[in-house]
Amino acid sequence: MNRRNTIYTALPVVAATYAENYGVRVVMGHDEASTDGKTIVIPNVPESYPHLDCLWGYLSHEAAHCLLTDFLTLEHIKSPLEHRLFNIFEDTRIERAFIELYPGAAYTLHETARYMLSAGHYEEITEDHHPASVLDGYCLYWLQCYLVGQTVLEPMVMSADKAAKAVLPVGVRTRLAALLRKVTELKDSWDTLALVHSVIKMLKDEQEKSQGQSQGDDGDQQSQGQPRDGDGVQQSQGQPQSGGYSSQQKLLQTIMDAQADDLTHDVYQSLAHDLESSAIHGDNSVKTIPVPKQQKGSGGADLLSDVRTVSSQLSQQLYGLVQASQQRKSRIGRTGKRISAKRATRILTGDTRVFEKRAAKREPNTAVHLLIDMSSSMNQGHGPKSPAQIARESSLALALALENIKGVNPAVTFFSSTAKQPVQQVVRHGERVLQKLDHFMVPATGSTPMAEAIWFAGYELSRVKEERKLVIVVTDGDPNNAFATRNVIERCVNGGFEFIGVGVKSNAVKKFFNNNIVINDVQELRTTLFSLMASNLSIM
Fold it and tell me: How many other CB atoms are there within 10 angstroms of residue 435's CB atom?
């Protein structure tokens, strides 16, 4: 099967897979790329975007922050230099730890570094840069290259090293090199902040040292009455070429007083801007795979007692149909263990094709996902039971019947409420229905987020082992977003999914599902669902 433009390759599905694996929340389909430490927002980039690895690298990097960074530490940062150094050290720490937790993240993070280098987001450091930029640029490239393993940045390390030797005092370079190696020992964000403070303290120590040396040299000059070479000091390796110790002291003060514009920029902010620039603005057809509610009602046991007899009958009938559909005609061959009585006389004519072999029975191998509309309109009805109650009973009865058939893997999801919470997960694929009875008892409320529900069902079905994937949508009206609904149905169909739309006193399903049925009496829902499953399972 060609999975291009299917539910399998859809960016929301891939993003949801990353989110579930990483244990973070991801929102897909917006115009911006951002994170608040809890939720990662991915812009609505097209699937034709040529740097999708960078999209997943961005997600991995931000997920690492969500999982591993304590954002309270930011409140204790006092200067732009401290902030930049913290970001550099913390990025290194979390990426190393994240790769250890999820080795597969190494590839996307490294490819992201490769892209950002080619896009010019990593700037080559020279001695003409602000001295603070020389210092933090050297830290950035050395740590990312040698501690994270992004060797594509090695040329940037070389240029930054050359600039550092030309600009930074030898004492700073020597002590900085020792401090950078301590990044491997960092356990949390507070350790990172402590290391930043150690670097700042080192700069102040070197400043005080140069100040003392400068005052000592001044005293020597006055007592001896002899001028010094050049600007008044005898130059030594690692000291500035002009200005002597006094100039070195000013250089270090300049570094510590640096403002944000004097420092290297955050390359992940540049990547976020690239993603935002590539996003398709105003397209609301792409939906985030919703995180389902696990809301429980009450009265599940009573609901079970109402449907148990019917469910048992359905189970027996469906099982019989499946068994009948699995029967295969016998075939005759020249070898085997069982001789066909009808063909035994062939031996007299020299024909040895008398051995009977029965074809192996084939299980349905089908995952069935019931999507039940639980919008507020499902509360409206004139009979003793509302459409919502009949839908609960029908879906429970069918789910109980299906789970007893080997090779069938049912799930039930209600969709309703608001766009922020569009689905209620009643029974997941592989779960026992009897353990989820109270989940059938949630109230019918809100609107009809059918697109979000189908995205969710598609995501769930894309991960099950069953080859055949069948979605049955029961609804009494039009979805909130018709365009998004058609988009996700097309993706699922391209991926080999089958759909059946069941309209409850509504012809809306005819606009979305080629295979559809409309019932004008909600009381028919249970028998309709049974008939649909009977015909679909018996054709296996």
Answer: 10
CA 156, 157, 162, 164 torsion-angle sign: positive
37 is written with which tokens? 């430490």
**C-alpha of 376 from chain center:** 31
Listed in sequence order, the residues at least 6 apart from 3 whose beta carbon sits closer than 8 Å to its beta carbon are 9, 495
Residue type, 171: G
What does the alpha-carbon distance between residue 118 and residue 253 come to, in Å, rounded to a whole number? Answer: 34
Query: Is the four-CA dihedral 374, 376, 379, 381 of positive or negative sign?
Result: negative
**CA 79 to chain CA mean position, Å:** 34
Place of tokens 């409206």: 380
Q: Strands, E, within 351-467: which ranges?
A: 355-358, 366-373, 408-415, 423-427
Q: What is the DSSP string of 37-76?
A: SSEEEEE---TT-TTHHHHHHHHHHHHHHHHH--GGGGGG
pLDDT at 143 over 90: yes
Q: Evaluate if residue 458 carries a pLDDT over 70.
A: yes
| pLDDT, tens digit (0-9, with 9 covering 90-100), for 213-263 | 766 665 554 444 443 333 333 344 444 444 566 788 999 999 999 999 999
Q: Are 24 and 11 in contact (CB under 8 A)?
A: no
Q: Rounding to the nearest 10 degrees, give the CA dihedral for residues 481, 487, 492, 498.
A: 70
Q: Report the pLDDT averaged over residues 388-414.
A: 90
Question: Would you call 426 helix, strand, or coil by DSSP?
Answer: strand
Distance CA 440, CA 427 (A): 9
User: CA 194, CA 199: separation in Å to the nearest integer?
Assistant: 9
The DSSP line for 288-337 is: --PPPB----S-HHHHHHHHHHHHHHHHHHHHHHHHHHH---EEEESS-S
Bridge partner residues of 34 (DSSP): 41
**How far, in Å, CA of 518 to CA of 525, rounded?**
10
